[in-house]
Specification:
By secondary structure, the protein is an alpha/beta fold. It has 2 domains: 273 residues, Spore Coat Polysaccharide Biosynthesis Protein SpsA, Chain A; 86 residues, no CATH class. It contains 11 helices and 15 strands. The strands form 3 sheets. A 5-stranded mixed barrel has the order 5-8-6-7-9. Strands 10-12-14-15 form a 4-stranded mixed sheet. Helix 3 packs across helix 7.
Length: 377
C-alpha cells in the first residue's frame, strides 16, 4: 500500500446520504419527513443521531448532507449548527452513485487531499464507541493507501434482507503504521440479497459480512475509480467540482442530474474495483428497514407484543402497536389479534399483517391515485 501521511481531522469529511422516501415506515414517515428525519425511539431523529456519532472524528463544517429538495428545509431545521451550504439537495433521485459523485465534488472543492466517508442517514448503531473505533481506523487506512474501504457488519443471523460481502484473509498492518484495533480483509465479492439457504451457508462459513452501505476513500482514489469504471460520472464530478462552492451548483445539478443513469455505488464501483477492502464491523447495527424490524429494539410482553402506546390485550400475540399521535392519544385494546401491525398518526391509521410489511410500499404507491389520500404522501 502506498504510504502517505495520516490526515488530520481537517482533512476528514463525511457525506451523509439522506434522500430516501421511507415508504416502509408509512404513515409515520412521509415524503417531506421520511424515515431518516423521524424519531422512533427517543428525542433525536436518525439523521441527528448519525451526525452526533461522527462529530468526535470530523469537524461539523466537514459534514455534508445530501438530500431531496422536498426534505432540505427539514434537514436544515433539524441541524441548525450545520452550515447552510452543507445541506445539498439533489434535483431528482438517481441512486447512490450520483450522490457519491456529488459528495466527491463537494469535498474536493474544499480539499483535494481529503479522505471521505459516505454513510446512510437512517441506521441504528447503539454501540457508538465501537463504531467510532472502526471508522477511525478506516479513515486512517483509506488515507495511507490506494484502497476503497467498506465497513462489513459481522452477521448475527442468516438474514435475507441484506446484501453480503465475501471476505478473504485478514490484511497485514501497513508498514510504518501503528497496529489498528480493526481487522481488514480483501473484499472478494459483493453478493445480492440471497435466499435463506444461501444466507445460512454464508453465515456458517464465517467468510461473509453484511453490506451496510458505508464506504471510505480518499478524494483521489474515488475520482480515479470513477474515471476508470464510470466515465460519465467522472465527467459530471469535474463539472460539479468547478461550481461546488458557488450558487451556480444548483443550476448545474438541475441540468445534469436527469441525464445520469440510475445506478448504485455498489454496482457502479465496488463490484468492479479490485482495490476494495472490508473493515470488520464488530458493533451492533440495524438498518431498520420495516415495522417488524422495530420490534428488535422494543421490549416485548410475555406474548411477544411490542407496543409504544397504552396497550391492553386478551389472547393477542406478536403484534406491533405504535401510537405516534401528538395529542388525544387513547388506549389501544386488542382481543384475539395476532401478528398485526397497527400504527396511529394524527391523520392516518395503518393496519397490516406483520408478514406482509414489505407490501406497505405498494400501498404508498397507490395514494396518489385517490385525491383524498394524496395528502398522506
Amino acid at each position: 500500500m502506498k504510504q502517505t501521511t495520516t490526515p488530520s481531522n481537517k482533512d476528514r469529511f463525511v457525506i451523509i446520504m439522506a434522500g430516501g422516501r421511507g415508504e416502509r415506515f408509512w404513515p409515520v414517515s412521509r415524503e417531506k419527513r421520511p424515515k431518516q428525519l423521524i424519531s422512533l425511539f427517543g428525542r433525536q431523529s436518525f439523521l441527528q443521531e448519525t451526525v452526533e456519532r461522527v462529530r468526535p472524528l470530523v469537524p461539523l463544517r466537514n459534514i455534508f448532507v445530501i438530500t431531496h429538495a422536498a426534505q432540505a428545509a427539514e434537514v436544515r431545521r433539524q441541524l441548525p449548527r450545520l452550515p447552510r451550504g452543507n445541506v445539498v439537495a439533489e434535483p431528482c433521485g438517481r441512486d447512490t452513485c450520483a450522490a457519491v459523485t456529488l459528495g466527491a465534488a463537494l469535498v474536493g472543492a474544499r480539499s483535494t487531499t481529503a479522505v471521505m466517508a459516505v454513510l446512510p442517514a437512517d441506521h441504528v448503531i447503539p454501540e457508538t464507541r465501537k463504531f467510532q473505533r472502526v471508522l477511525e481506523d478506516a479513515f486512517n487506512l483509506a488515507a495511507r493507501g490506494q484502497v476503497m474501504v467498506t465497513i462489513g457488519i459481522e452477521p448475527t443471523e442468516p438474514s435475507t434482507a441484506y446484501g453480503y460481502i465475501r471476505v478473504g484473509d485478514p490484511l497485514p498492518t501497513p508498514r510504518g503504521a501503528r497496529r489498528m484495533r480493526t481487522a481488514f480483509f480483501k473484499a472478494e465479492q459483493f453478493v445480492e440479497k440471497p435466499p435463506l439457504s444461501k444466507a445460512i451457508d454464508f453465515v456458517s462459513s464465517g467468510h461473509y459480512r453484511w453490506n451496510a452501505g458505508m464506504f471510505l476513500w480518499s478524494f483521489v482514489t474515488l475520482t480515479e475509480a470513477l474515471a476508470q469504471h464510470q466515465p460519465d460520472f467522472a465527467d459530471a464530478c469535474q463539472r460539479w467540482f468547478k461550481v461546488a462552492a458557488s450558487p451556480r451548483l444548483a443550476r448545474v445539478l438541475a441540468r445534469d442530474y436527469p441525464k445520469l443513469k440510475r445506478v448504485s455505488i455498489d454496482y457502479a464501483l465496488m463490484e468492479k474495483a479490485r482495490n476494495v477492502v472490508a473493515a470488520d464491523g464488530r458493533f451492533a447495527w440495524d438498518d431498520l428497514g420495516s415495522w417488524p424490524a422495530l420490534a428488535r429494539h422494543l421490549k416485548a410482553d410475555a406474548a411477544g407484543n411490542c407496543a409504544v402506546a397504552e396497550f391492553l390485550e386478551v389472547e393477542s400475540a406478536r403484534n406491533i402497536i405504535y401510537d405516534a399521535r401528538s395529542k388525544n392519544r387513547t388506549p389501544v385494546a386488542a382481543v384475539g389479534i395476532k401478528d398485526a401491525i397497527l400504527v396511529l398518526t394524527d391523520d392516518a391509521i395503518l393496519l397490516a399483517d406483520r408478514n406482509q410489511a414489505q407490501e406497505i410500499k405498494k400501498l404508498v404507491a397507490r395514494l396518489p391515485d385517490r385525491p383524498k389520500f394524496k395528502k398522506l404522501l
